[in-house]
Amino acid sequence: MSTPFFERWFANHFINRIGHKTAFALAMVLCLLWSAAAAVRGPAEAAAAVASQEWPSEWDGVALRPLALSDVEQRFADRFPGAIGRMTDGTQTLVMRAVAQPTRMLHPAADCYRALGYRIEQARLERDAQERMWRCFVAQRHGAQKIRVCERIVDARGTAFTDTSAWYWAAASGQSHGPWQAVTVAKPI
């Protein structure tokens, strides 16, 4: 009497246990290689879009002119996974960051201002004249003029985020797709 195919291949024999474990290990290696290839390919495409970043020549109908990054900004930009541009329209300074992948290096502007010795006041969400939602605050440092700062992050589909942490988790979980553009607008008051 011959044994059925199923019983022969899945019987608890040494050769079957080794064969099944080997097949499972090969499947795991293939999955890892597939994931690694997808991870390399995805950010590379987004990075190419960011590397060729062209900053806008106007903001809300007003011409912009580029500004050089400060030494602190340049050191940060050298490690940043994207591109950073700084410009002005004559009354306010805009810092634009193009981001190719989810990163914790894209953090709230309030953190930067606090690190520079500013006190953050009047933090709130606001809509501008174009009905865009922004996270805004006033930054004040002893002996310096107050600065009104507003920021937002927009993904490739036009979805906007005013909370950096919400953006990060949406991007990391695949709910938001890049490249992303973070805009911070600072105006003396």
TrEMBL record:
Name the UniProt record assigns to this protein: Uncharacterized protein
Originating organism: Variovorax paradoxus
